[in-house]
């Protein structure tokens, strides 16, 4: 009671003489309480708005479905486009016909990525980093997470590769959820030795992401040292439909096996029944029912079966799903260059507004680099990492 009356007195500007309690202290406590209340109110208002917008999206989607289905008794069929396969592709053509247009492409004749000095097989990774830990992922169609991939128990790379070479993808009672998928294992973090002979192809060597400082204001910046990464997927493992994070572009080099890709344009995103809050999609291009997701029939499916030795370019914000038709090994990079720079800045700034300080730092670092020259030529891993920061 006593404390309260002092607080009240001090609030009303009356000097708390005779008390050994610093009046400024109560003012600060009071301001903090007010601030807390204000933020709590803001959060609950935003939640209300969020639920209301989700309902609104559902209603609009259902109106759109009715319109679409009523318009000339449309048959629910998907339309496919084969992803271009290009050989002898020069950098300018790559940018003008694909990267700037947000169109995927397969580069069929580009071997320099993996220097001939190293045999890029699992033995290479195992010999150098067999005792490093990996956390394989497992596809779970009910999981409300990015790619519907959930983490499993960590084990050493050696143990995982042991599993990989003995697993049974062919048994009739093997459920799709049984496969352990080594997914996006960040080589510069866990196995930098494996990259000594790695070559970054000219199409992607303008990556700004790996030129930003490793830290800012004492905080380590994510993404700088994450790619290339390694994928080892047993036959029948898969990544469900997702959009790669922070507006990044993506490329993958397939070392072994065959992978089926379904890729959609950014402009078709609203037909794919996305749940942005959980980063999942109700529409599954490999197991779909168009009666349940009719708008998906409006989206063009860019499809390919990626073959060993090929490089696939996936543009930023293009939803995609991937199915391993065979045991497969691949290396990939997410990256930022002139073709997706604006998208990335927009996305990082949005993340910063949600309280993600690191994203704000990355955006700042990318802005500082944007006026610097980029080289578009094959770069050895060490030259790539040495480019001017
Ligand atoms: O190869 C895969 O399973 C999917 C790779 C991918 O799309 C990703 O890591 O974002
Ligand atoms: Fe992806």
TrEMBL record:
SMART domains reported in the protein's UniProt record: JmjC
Record key words, sorted: Signal
Gene Ontology CC, one term: cytoplasm
Entry-linked Pfam families: Cupin_8
Coiled-coil region: none
Organism: Arcella intermedia
Domain of life: Eukaryota
Residue ranges annotated for the JmjC domain, each copy included: 189-352
Protein's name according to its UniProt entry: JmjC domain-containing protein
SUPFAM superfamilies registered for this protein in UniProt: Clavaminate synthase-like
GO MF term set: histone H4R3 demethylase activity; P-TEFb complex binding
InterPro entries membership: Cupin_8, JmjC_dom, JMJD6_ArgDemeth/LysHydrox
Signal peptide start-end: 1-18
Lineage: Eukaryota, Amoebozoa, Tubulinea, Elardia, Arcellinida
